[in-house]
Amino acid sequence: MKLKLKAKVFMLMTATLIVTIGIIWFMFREATLWILPGYNQAILQEMGGELAERLAGVNADDREAIAREIEAFTREHDGIGIELFDLDGTLLYSYAGRIEPDSPREALERFANPFQRVFFGQDASLIYKIAVKGETRFVVFDVRGDMWQPVQIFLYIGNWAVYPFFLGPLFLIIVLPALTAFLFIWWMTRRLKRLNRAMQRVDLSGEPVHLVDKNKDEISELTKLFNEMTLKLHDQYRHIRQIEEARAKLVSQLSHDLRTPLSIIQGYAETLQRGMAHDRETRIRQATIIMQKADYMNELLRKLFRLAQLDDPSKAFQKRKGFLDSLLQTIMADYVLILQDKGIEWQLELPETPVAATFDGDGLTQAIRNLIDNAILHGGDGKYLGIRLKRAGDTARIEIEDRGKGIPPHEMERIYEPFYRIDRGRPSDGLGVGLTLADAIVRRHGGVIEVSSEPYVSNVFRVILPVGQAASVEEKMEGA
């Protein structure tokens, strides 16, 4: 049978209480007889019984034999004197050598206040009734004050009427702490049980389970961790669901965006295969279109592959020291002819002092190119592209500006989502992963992308990168 923690604690405390009371009783009732020196009422009563057994072998009329037996018994017990009386009060033996018993007045003074004398360690006389050969005798023990045991607990527990006054406080001393501990553990187990029920109710597809525990202890910390854990699990679950939905959307979008170039490639390839294009210029034009569409498809697949690599922690960036201004000059050299063909005015502004930083060349190049491609694709109607590099303290800022239609305010928070496109109502040349890829690359560099948009006036993407203690050319020359 499986016991609950509360039942186990109750059984343990009950057993502990019984054992404790038993040990205390043993210490007062038995251990004092063995450990503490001297006499007490129980010892004297036992001595009276032992003396009765010895006198049973002696002739009751032979007073000399009685005296020898009592004297031998007295020598075995130091600090006491013994007197023996018969039933009618006749003195049969006296350690003091008396022949006649005490007078009534002497007897009253002798036996007055025995418990008080014992308690305060004074000389005291105690009388006990014994049976010798079936006849009643009375034995008197005169005990010196220094021979009484220091603990005379039997003066109080000899009467059943005083047990409640003795055991009551003792019981409370033991039971109250045990009861307090039991109630405390019951309260703790109740809180743990509530936490256990909450764990059983966790459903990632539903609302997060939230517990409130205002106490400040380990269980409240555990409750706090549980709340944080459930929130993280729900966030991760939602993130996974979004990824799954994005993957499904990717398959649909990918099939849609690749179907058109594939159809074009297939059509022109069949034309070339059948020899329907007789003149050389037509064949060259069709072959060029095939190559362009193939390059477009290859670029889309390359971006998707790169985005998948960024999610893999094992694919670390190869960061090296370099100059951001040189990187921008190299990138813009590839766009000069494209911008001229599109009639877009462009401008590249670089600081007089080269800006050094540590970065992954391929990754950062791709991020900036994606931002430039985005500016040309969505802001080309503004016929302007501006690239600027600035250094501010330990950061470098790369700004890509266009003067096109910009980004609606309600779209700002979603532009970095994978496969999300603003121009969903018309065909587009992208899958909506360019900004996602750029944002992921910049974040891997410890930076951030900020965006501001004022349609047909200024739309700016700002790449803010940490450059730390990377030195400029002049600083390196001074150090040399």
Q: Which structural class should the secondary elements be placed in?
A: alpha+beta
This entry's quaternary arrangement is single chain
Largest beta sheet, briefly? 5 strands, mixed
> Into which percent range does the helicity of residues fall?
40-55%
Total strands: the figure is 11
Q: Termini separation (Å)?
A: 82 Å
**Uncertain runs with pLDDT below 50, 5 residues or more?**
470-480
Radius of gyration, whole Å = 53 Å
Please indicate the percent range of residues in DSSP E strands (runs of 2 or more). Answer: 15-25%
Q: Given the C-alpha coordinates, what overall shape results?
A: rod-shaped
Question: What's the SSE pattern?
Answer: HHHEEHHEEHHHHEHHEEHEEHEEH
Strand order of the largest sheet: 6-8-9-11-10
What does the model show?
By secondary structure, the chain is of the alpha+beta class. It folds into three domains: 165 residues, no CATH class; 112 residues, Helix Hairpins; 160 residues, Histidine kinase-like ATPase, C-terminal domain (Heat Shock Protein 90, 2-Layer Sandwich). The chain contains 14 helices and eleven strands.
What's the gist of this structure?
By secondary structure, the chain is of the alpha+beta class.
Topology:
Elements lengths: L4 H31 L5 H15 L7 H13 L4 E7 L4 E4 L9 H8 L2 H6 L4 E9 L2 E9 L10 H4 L5 H39 L16 H57 L5 H31 L9 E4 H10 L2 H7 L2 E5 L6 E4 L1 H19 L4 E9 L2 E8 L31 H11 L3 E7 L3 E9 L6 H7 L1
Parallel strand pairs: 6-8
Antiparallel strand pairs: 1-2, 1-4, 3-4, 5-7, 8-9, 9-11, 10-11
Helix pairs in contact: 1-7, 8-9, 9-13, 12-13
